[in-house]
Write a sequence for this structure.
């Protein structure tokens, strides 16, 4: 049975960097990847309009100046095909493919308490053993297909945005329905509307969306950004969100009404996430949040011509930012098109399907194709999709039955030598996830180097340290407005999933400082078993 130092699951941005980093330090590694290519989320999410809503110069690896300088981003926000080409460029440049098994799934993993390593079963590469199991499976990688009544009756095509066919999908002139108006739906809707004969948007909860104002980056700007990379990266590393945008320099409640209006207008015109991150009190003070939310609602009413449609598009049941903000290109404008209909399925719920219709309580809608932009079993889906068994054969799924947690969002008590890149308890999805990935991989590499030089064979999070960490994650979130929405951050989008706020809300730079302090303190909160103790 092949035996490695590290078995890495996933060849997205986390898996690619983990392979590069660990291999470079002399660890033998194998990556197992279900897809037939690299790129993770960008390999699967090929829906029309898919693109990143973090700016390209931020949403890219910072560990290699050579890659930074050789690669040129074409747009402020890169489209999915370009990001996928970038992932392939990196994989080729670093010669990563030779250590990746594509088209292969891990089907089970069990910790061998005697040998202090993992036995890993796969569907196409047999059984493997590894000292360390590194889950680089992504936070948003298991698509959620809702339990829609009678969906099996529908004879048209049903496509999830996160599992879009590689060969594309013919939508021209068709009657298309889309369920879901989160980030994926908000990106897909304007593009599908241009192609489809008619598009019916089935919306349960409207979301707040800020314009991206995306466009090609002029040559001089690209050059200037490339010259500035080190400053931009350092600014991002010292920020809340892991981004180089200026943050928290305004307090909504300290401004006059005129100043506020001008500030909201400016952030709207700049576009993207800075609408949230510019204001220090937006996620703490309900009154401040309501003012920011009201500005966006007024924008929606100004853009959307039909008052009833505009009213239906205005979010009312959650603070702005408590569900992840969407960043769009022409989303609200799309509802002025004559070939687009908005259906409020909270007011008029979906009751069933026939061969070619979706029916609600009061209407039926003829469809050729149904697009599901219905999200993911976020943060834990890929970690509980198969049996991962730790000490005494206990599964991770059982361990997390009352809520997921990991010390630093990286290590789980009872699962020695298992590490999660951007797991529950890490800043991951509230930060620029690429930077979060880099930080996790680098911190983990240091830990594994430490283990190697100190003859440590087993690394395990202490359960009290983990509980304290997760209590802090929850308490910190409870002090904000993040917990005032039924979001996927809480697992609220998956029926039966325990509601526990999973991301670390105190910001990337504070998180990194804590990780450094823990390492400097001899990896406080971890049990480190030395070979000599083992022999004794
Ligand atoms: P999402 O935010 O979870 O949105 C899912 C949508 O489907 C919601 O509107 C939800 O309505 C709706 N829905 C689910 N089940 C339904 C049902 N049974 N009936 C009617 N509606 C239903 O998922 P997502 O849009 O895929 O985005 C998830 C995350 O992925 C984002 O927040 C973001 O972090 C990431 N993402 C990022 C980008 C990017 O540009 N970087 C792009 C896409 C996604 P309710 O709100 O009522 O549940």
């Amino acid at each position: 049975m092949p035996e490695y130092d590290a078995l890495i699951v996933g060849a997205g941005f986390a898996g690619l960097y983990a392979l590069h980093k660990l291999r470079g330090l002399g660890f033998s590694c194998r990556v197992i990847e279900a897809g037939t290519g690299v790129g993770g989320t960008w390999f699967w999410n090929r829906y029309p309009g898919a693109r990143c809503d973090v700016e390209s110069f931020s949403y890219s690896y910072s560990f290699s100046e050579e890659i930074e300088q050789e690669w040129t981003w074409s747009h402020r926000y890169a489209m999915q095909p370009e990001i996928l080409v970038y992932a392939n460029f990196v994989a080729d440049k670093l010669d990563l493919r030779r250590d990746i098994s594509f088209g292969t799934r891990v089907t089970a993993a069990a910790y061998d308490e005697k040998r202090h390593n993992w036995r890993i079963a796969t569907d196409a590469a047999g059984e493997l053993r590894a000292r360390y199991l590194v889950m680089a499976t992504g936070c948003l990688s298991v698509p959620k297909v809702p339990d829609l009544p009678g969906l099996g009756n529908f004879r048209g095509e049903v496509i999830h945005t996160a599992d879009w066919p590689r060969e594309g999908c013919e939508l021209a002139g068709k009657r298309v329905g889309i369920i879901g108006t989160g980030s994926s739906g908000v990106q897909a809707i304007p593009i599908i509307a241009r192609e489809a004969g008619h598009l019916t948007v089935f919306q349960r909860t409207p979301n707040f969306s800020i314009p991206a104002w995306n466009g090609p980056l002029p040559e001089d700007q690209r050059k200037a950004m490339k010259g500035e990379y080190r400053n931009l990266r350092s600014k991002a590393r010292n920020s809340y969100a892991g981004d180089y945008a200026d943050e928290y320099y305004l307090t909504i409640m300290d401004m006059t009404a005129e100043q506020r209006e001008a500030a909201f207008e400016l952030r709207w015109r700049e576009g993207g996430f800075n609408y949230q991150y510019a204001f220090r009190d937006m996620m703490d003070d309900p009154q401040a949040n309501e003012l920011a939310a009201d500005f966006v609602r007024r924008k929606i009413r100004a853009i959307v011509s039909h008052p009833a449609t505009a009213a239906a598009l205005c979010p009312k049941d959650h603070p702005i930012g408590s569900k992840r903000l969407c960043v769009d290109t022409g989303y609200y404008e799309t509802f002025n098109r004559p070939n687009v209909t908005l259906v409020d399925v909270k007011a008029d719920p979906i009751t069933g399907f026939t061969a070619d219709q979706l029916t609600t309580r009061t209407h039926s809608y003829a469809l050729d194709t149904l697009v599901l932009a219905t999200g993911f079993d976020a943060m834990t889906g890929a970690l509980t999709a198969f049996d991962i068994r730790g000490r005494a054969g206990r599964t991770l799924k059982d361990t997390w039955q009352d809520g997921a947690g990991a010390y630093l969002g990286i290590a789980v008590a009872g699962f020695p030598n298992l590490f999660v890149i951007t797991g529950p308890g890490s800043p991951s999805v509230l930060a620029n996830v690429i930077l979060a990935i880099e930080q996790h991989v680098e911190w983990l590499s240091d830990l594994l180097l430490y283990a190697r030089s100190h003859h440590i064979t087993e690394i395990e999070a202490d359960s009290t340290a983990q509980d304290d960490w997760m209590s802090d994650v929850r308490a910190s979130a409870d002090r904000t407005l993040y917990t005032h929405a039924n979001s996927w951050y809480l697992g609220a989008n998956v029926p039966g999933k325990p509601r526990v706020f999973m991301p670390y809300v105190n910001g990337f730079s504070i998180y990194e400082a804590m990780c450094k302090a823990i390492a400097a303190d001899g990896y406080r909160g971890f049990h480190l078993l030395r070979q000599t103790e083992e022999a004794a």
About this structure: DSSP finds 17 helices and 20 strands in the chain.
